[in-house]
Amino acid sequence: MSIVVTGATGHLGRHVVEELLERGVAPADVVAGGRALERVADLAERGVRTARVDYDDPASVAAVLGEGDTVLLISASEPGRRVQQRGTVIDAAARAGVARLVYTSVLAADTTALVLAPEHKATEELLAASGLTTTVLRNGWYSENYVPTLEQARATGVVLSSTGGGRVASAARDDYAAAAAVVLTTDGHEGAVHELSGDTAWAFDELAAVLSELLGREVQHDDVTPEEHRAALLAAGLDEATAGFVVALDGNIRDGALAATSGTLSRLIGRPTTPLADTLRRALP
């Protein structure tokens, strides 16, 4: 019986594998699955089993899952195809008879207006109908999502948003990965839905202050209307779909969709979540 991590060649999945090893899981008991296996070649050298897992290739998914395995399904990333791709893994897991499937969802997936939520909600419905024993990790926002903002602030001295004072309880990928590793290796999470977020919810004025300190230059937060924000993004070269997504997300932040601070994440990992400033500091050259 193995712990199978799908999406292990991506950012979060890679961190989960590392956390499993740090928790003392034998490398031979871990399967790191993904499409770009060259990214996990060093894990293979350490004894981790690696396997090609492509959500668009059901045979590759079925080949890696076995009876009694514990599986972490890392969210697929292709817009409009995520539910189908995740369904491929869920179906294969049910046929294989895995012991438990753990899924990385999003905060309050079944009730939130968050622009990312509908496909997660649909996936959770597939899980509920699958007959599998499941655990749902409803991950909040990743602090690493603001590394591009750090670079923009370095170049312009400005953080542009239409968040209207809304707050974000972000945490580092390492934090969410540590929680996944705990859930994968301990009992008592069967059927659980864990709402996970950072300990502290910050506003974009605070983000600008953090960036000012890290960059050694004044960074100001320009809070504009959604219409002004969209126009500025299009003028900067973003396409309509991307600009619309960014403005919709800022609207979600404005409405409080990413502000929850339940404390569940820090309780699971046994330590405070990583402060925003520490995560961004690691991204500095």
Q: Care to describe what's here?
A:
With 285 residues, the chain is an alpha/beta fold. It has a domain at 3-139: NAD(P)-binding Rossmann-like Domain (Rossmann fold, 3-Layer(aba) Sandwich). The protein has twelve helices and eleven strands. The protein has helices at 11-22, 41-45, 58-62, 82-96, 117-130, 147-156, 173-185, 204-215, 226-235, 240-254, 264-269, 276-282; strands spanning 3-5, 30-34, 49-52, 70-73, 100-106, 134-139, 158-161, 167-168, 193-196, 202-203, 220-223. The chain has a seven-stranded parallel beta sheet with strand order 3-2-1-4-5-6-9, with helices on both faces. The longest helix is centred in the N-terminal third of the chain and has 15 residues, at 82-96. The radius of gyration is 19 Å and the shape is globular.
Strand content: 15-25%
Class based on secondary structure composition and strand pairing: alpha/beta
Stated plainly, the CATH topology of the domain at 3-139 is called Rossmann fold
CATH class bucket of the domain at 3-139: Alpha Beta
Shape: globular
Write out the strand line-up for the largest beta sheet, numbering strands in chain order. 3-2-1-4-5-6-9
Helix content: 40-55%
Give the beta-strand count.
Answer: 11
Largest sheet: 7 strands, parallel
CATH architecture descriptor text of the domain at 3-139: 3-Layer(aba) Sandwich
* SSE string, helices as H and strands as E: EHEHEHEHEHEHEEHEEHEHHHH
Query: What is the CATH superfamily classification of the domain at 3-139?
Result: NAD(P)-binding Rossmann-like Domain
Which spans of ≥5 residues are poorly predicted at pLDDT below 50?
none
Rg from Cα: 19 Å
| Average pLDDT reading | 96
Compute the separation of the termini in Å.
Answer: 41 Å
The number of helical runs is: 12
